[in-house]
Structure formats: structure tokens, C-alpha cells
Amino acid sequence: MSRIVTVGAAQMGAIQRADSRAAVVKRMIELMRQAAAHGCDVVVYPELTLTTFFPRWFMENQDEIDTFFEREMPSNETAPLFNEAARLGIGFSFGYAELTPEGRHFNTSLIVDKTGRQVGKYRKIHLPGHREPEPWRAFQHLEKRYFEVGDLSWGVWNAFGGLAGMMICNDRRWPESYRVMGLQGVEMIFVGYNTPRHNPPAPDHDRLSEFHNQLVLQAGAYQNGTWVVGVGKCGVEEGCEMIGATSIVAPTGEIIGQSLTQEDELVIARCDLDLTKSYKATTFNFDLHREPDQYRRIVEQKGVIRPSAD
Ligand code: ING
Fold it and tell me: CN hydrolase domain spans which residues (predicted)?
């Protein structure tokens, strides 16, 4: 028996500061229509899909910062996306900067299923970069300044005939993000990202940007027996290049679909959720093979298990 989910990974090219949300939503709808035309059940967009990656600038005026945030979802500007999805009968997931009615700021993503039901929401936990401006950098990375650490765990929800979850960008570099969902039986993880090629504190890593991106997506997929859909916002935004390398990764750890450009590009794959079963039942059978008591003992002792004397 197969449970096929046809996925459209909707990579977005550069979004400049002057680009309106309406113009971005128009591009998103074009990709959504392509996805529907190819029989996709869900289309997945990047992190902070609606605007340029604004944490690259130091801004002091909170009103200016808040212009990059959404106070409601759907908003007037994003309603056409929700309406088109309902018309096409397709699910979707995308990231945006969330400003709550209580005035809290999060880097957020959501999943909407084919019926238009909001299935789940997630707020980014691993916020990279720095809080105070660092003038030595070619560009800033002020996520710690503009967002709070997410207060929603990595949830897993019934959607598209299986169990789906989300993480956001830097989360994909941390095994805990995958494992928390793996322990809930996740079968497909959506992860959008905005990844500058140049990492100012470690420029020697720059040449490995795409490799590290795919390494963590593949490892997370294999080690938790799940599909992983990694979707980039890429190209040169305000002089800062961000990587594409949008990838659809099978529970085998193999990349079965990958973008070829730094532009708006739809990567499509038929993903059989039942392919997760053999990994969850054998190699990564957590009930059979994981040793959480040992992990706790080691962590409590803050050391490693020492080999016996003999
Ligand atoms: N961006 C980057 C990411 O984790 C980064 C930050 C770049 C970390 C390069 C390490 C190396 O993909 C976001 N938005 O998290």
C-alpha cells in the first residue's frame, strides 16, 4: 500500500526591500498554480517568504521593524494566497514574521491543508546571529534582536494522509529539532530557510554552504525515518547572496528532487509516506534501540560513560 503525497517545493528567488507583499504573493500564487497543474497536494514556501530577509539590517525604530511583520494571518495582502489555495484545493506551508496582538515577535510558519484548515503553527526556536549590531560584519544577522525564541514546540499534525511537522531554517542544523518530531512519528517535515552564503564569523565555511544544507537535511531525514522538504529563499537580496539548493529528501536519506536555479523554481516529487515504515520499524525503532535512560544518566553526570577498567 502506498500513501503518496505529491509535494511542490516552491523555492523563491530574491525579494528586495522595495518589493511589495502584493508582488510577492503574486509570485507565490504563480508557483501554487504550477504545483496544482502538476497534481501537487501541498506547496511549501521558504522562511519569511513575504519580505526581504530584514534581519540583515540594524534598525532601532520599532515601527520600522514592525513594517516587516504580519499582525494577522491571513492578512489583506495574503488573503489572495489562501483564496487561491481553496480554489485549487491544494495545501500549503510558508513562513512569515508574526506580530501577535500582545505585541510579541516571532519567526513563524504554518501549515494549511487542502480544505483550507490551519493544521499547525510553529515559531522558530534556534535563532542564529546576534542581538547587538556588529559593524565589522558585511551584513548583520539580527534574528536574536527582532524575534523572541519560539514558544511552540515542534508539533506533528495529521495532514495530507500522514503526520507532518515544521521547523525553520537554523533549526535544521540541530538534531534535536528532527528528533522531537521523530519521537512523535513524523513522516514529512517542511523547513524553509534564508541562508546567506557568507557567514561572517566563519568565512571558511562559505564554500560548504550547500553541502552543509543538504548534509543536515539528509541526516535528519534518515535518522528519523522521515521525508524532509527544504525550501530556500535565494539569489542576491540587497547585495547579499543566499543559497538555493532546495531539496526534497527521502527517509532513505537520498535527495530525490533539487532546484537548479537561484530563482522562483518549483521542485516536484511524489513522496510515498509508507517509505518511512521500514526505517521506523528497524534501524530507527526508538522503542527497541534508543537508550533514553542512559542519555539522561550521562547528561546528569555531565560526562561520558567511561570504559570499564579491564
Ligand atoms: N539563516 C542561516 C541558517 O541557519 C546561518 C544562518 C548561516 C547559520 C550559515 C550558519 C551558517 O541557515 C537563518 N535564517 O537561520
Answer: 5-275
Class of residue 41 by CB neighbours under 10 A (exposed 0-12, middle 13-18, buried 19+): buried
- In the chain, what is the straight-line distance between the N-terminal and C-terminal CA atoms, in Å? 51
Domains for the chain: give ranges and CATH numbers: 4-302 (3.60.110.10)
Q: For residue range 165-174, list pLDDT tens digits in order.
A: 999 999 999 9
Specify the ligand 1 atom closest to the Cα of 173.
4
Enumerate the active-site residues: 47, 124, 169
**C-alpha to C-alpha distance for 279 and 165, rounded to whole angstroms:** 18
CB-based contact 41:5 (threshold 8 Å): yes
pLDDT tens digit string along 84-94?
999 999 999 99
Residues touching ligand 1 (Cβ under 6 Å) are 128, 169-170, 173, 193-196, 199
The helix-helix angle for 21-37 and 79-88 (nearest 10°) equals 10
Q: Which of 139, 191, 193, when mutated, tests ligand 1's pocket best, judged by the most ligand atoms within 8 Å of its CB?
A: 193
* Secondary element (H or E) of residue 200: none
pTM summary value: 0.96
C-alpha cell at 212: 552543509
